[in-house]
Design goal:
By secondary structure, the chain is of the alpha/beta class. About 40% of the residues lie in helices and about 10% in strands. It has 2 domains: about 170 residues, Aspartate Aminotransferase, domain 1, CATH 3.90.1150.10; about 250 residues, Aspartate Aminotransferase, domain 2, CATH 3.40.640.10. The strands form 5 sheets. Strands 2-8-7-6-5 form a 5-stranded mixed sheet, with helices on both faces. A 3-stranded antiparallel sheet has the order 9-12-11. The relative contact order is 0.17. Bound molecules: pyridoxal-5'-phosphate (PLP). Pyridoxal-5'-phosphate binds next to helix 4 and helix 5.
Length: about 450
């Protein structure tokens, strides 16, 4: 027999009951939430695919670690365990814990970007760009063009286009580039990986010009799994080894522990740059807490340390990525338009092709996410014109080419039957797509508007 089923390499020890609701209930809840899935109460959601951030199920070993918290103000044992796990798994010498990823980005941006400098990224991420801009930097997109085409089947759509970097350096000088911010499994492109070959090329380019690479290594392990699956020379290699090689091309990284690290909270900066480490330690005290806890309890750091070791288990990561693939395959078979190939943490519905009757100003992805909740109690999120925000110079909406609804799969939380329910709901909506109406924004926060904006149906 070929293609035997591979089951999850864990079993369920504790369950959390879910509330089953009616369509009338969900219509009212969605309208009360201003058609923004971020404003729903979690208890009113049946399958929560809003994000994979902080939503992982911890292992019994992580929970056991929670009981071993050394809640000392300074020098907690758990900090040293965390430091050791990061040194071993990521390979960087120095560690500064933070309460979550954006705090690591805040400190890194403030210390490493001078006003007027550019920060090239392989596509923007909301908080990463926000912190770069607050530090006086300008985000510069350097991802390959294929990443902006949701139908393109390129296996490494997270790749950096070195010609774009080169043009930036020629136009403004290499010294105008603060650092390269390279993200594995690029979230905004649909969870798309870069190849090791591309990273090697980028690294050589950067080294020649004295420009450091600082990874946003929040979703690195899924990228490593794709390298192992798709890139020549990496078949059968443990993801732990692939991750060490990947990180070896960077000076350091910022990480949100709420993703790869299988944690509900936490983040860190890891670096080999002594001077930056010293300054980051000084700054973390002002914004987060002492440099041996960075806004985290000892027990949190212990669970992080254990999650960091578990995330590079080959069977676990294979099962994680395969579940995402399972949902993607079901949608493709039903003819529902999604971003191809399916990424590492999420399946993205292509709202532009799903709802061709809605112009981008009517927020098609926002409307589709709202309709999905009303249909089945599945919570997704918009990744399109609302998330992109406004251009600070012109004040107009940024109009991203991609107008997506993200179905993000939490780690170790749902079964494939849950995924089937999601697929069937998307399929039902696709059959009735003409009935989905556009939205008008009635409240718009100044920054990161997608979190709290409110809408009404047109
Ligand atoms: C989640 C995320 C962040 C921000 O981390 P938080 O822990 O949410 O503050 C930064 N970069 C990427 C790629 C992320 O996915």
């Amino acid at each position: 027999m070929k293609n035997r089923t591979v089951a999850e390499p864990y079993k369920i020890k504790m369950v959390e009951p879910l509330k089953v609701t009616t369509r009338a209930f969900r219509e009212e809840a969605m309208s009360a939430a201003g058609h923004n899935t971020f404003l729903l109460r979690s208890e009113d959601v049946f399958i929560d695919l809003l994000t994979d951030s902080g939503t992982s199920a911890m292992s019994d070993r992580q929970w056991a670690g929670m009981m071993l918290g050394d809640e000392a103000y300074a020098g907690a044992k758990n900090f040293y365990n965390l430091e050791e796990a990061i040194r071993e798994v990521y390979g960087f010498r120095h560690v500064v814990p933070t309460h979550q990823g954006r705090a690591a980005e805040h400190i890194t941006s403030q210390l490493r970007i001078r006003k007027g400098q550019y920060v090239p990224m392989n596509m923007y991420f909301t908080t990463t760009r926000e912190h770069a801009e607050r530090a006086g930097g300008t985000f510069h997109d350097c991802i390959i063009d294929e990443a902006h085409d949701p139908a393109c089947e390129h296996p490494f759509k997270g790749n950096v286009d070195v010609a774009k970097l080169d043009k930036l350096a020629r136009d403004h000088g290499a010294e105008s580039i603060a650092y390269l911010s390279i993200a594995p499994c690029v979230n905004m492109a649909g969870g798309q990986p870069f190849s090791m070959a591309n990273l090697r090329e980028v690294s050589a380019w950067a080294r020649e010009r004295g420009i450091p690479i600082i990874f946003d290594a929040t979703r690195a392990v899924e990228n490593c799994f794709f390298i192992r699956q798709r890139e020549e020379g990496y078949q059968g290699r443990p993801v732990a080894r692939i991750l060490r090689e990947m990180m070896s091309y960077g000076e350091g990284c910022t990480v949100s522990s709420k993703k790869d690290n299988l944690r509900n909270i936490g983040g860190f900066i890891a670096t080999n740059n002594e001077e930056f480490f010293t300054k980051a330690k000084e700054m973390v005290v002002v914004f987060e807490g002492l440099h041996t806890y960075g806004g985290l309890a000892g027990r949190d750091m212990e669970a992080m340390a254990r999650g960091i070791r578990e995330m590079v288990d080959d069977d676990y990561i294979a099962s994680r990525v395969r579940q995402v693939e399972h949902l993607g395959r079901r949608l493709v078979e039903a003819g529902v338009p999604i971003v191809r190939p399916v990424g590492g943490h999420a399946v993205f519905l292509d709202a532009k092709r799903f709802l061709p009757h809605l112009p981008q100003d009517r927020f098609p992805a926002q409307a589709l996410a709202a309709a999905l909740y009303v249909d089945s109690g599945v919570r997704a999120m918009e990744r399109g014109i609302v998330s992109a925000g406004r251009d600070p110079r012109t004040g107009d909406h940024r109009r991203p080419k991609l107008e997506l609804v993200r179905l993000t799969i939490p780690r170790r939380v749902y079964t494939n039957l849950h995924m089937d329910v999601v697929a069937e709901s998307c399929e039902a909506l696709y059959e009735e797509r003409d009935a989905i109406r556009g939205l008008r924004m009635t409240y718009e926060p100044e920054s990161l508007r997608f979190f709290q904006a409110r809408f009404e149906q047109v």
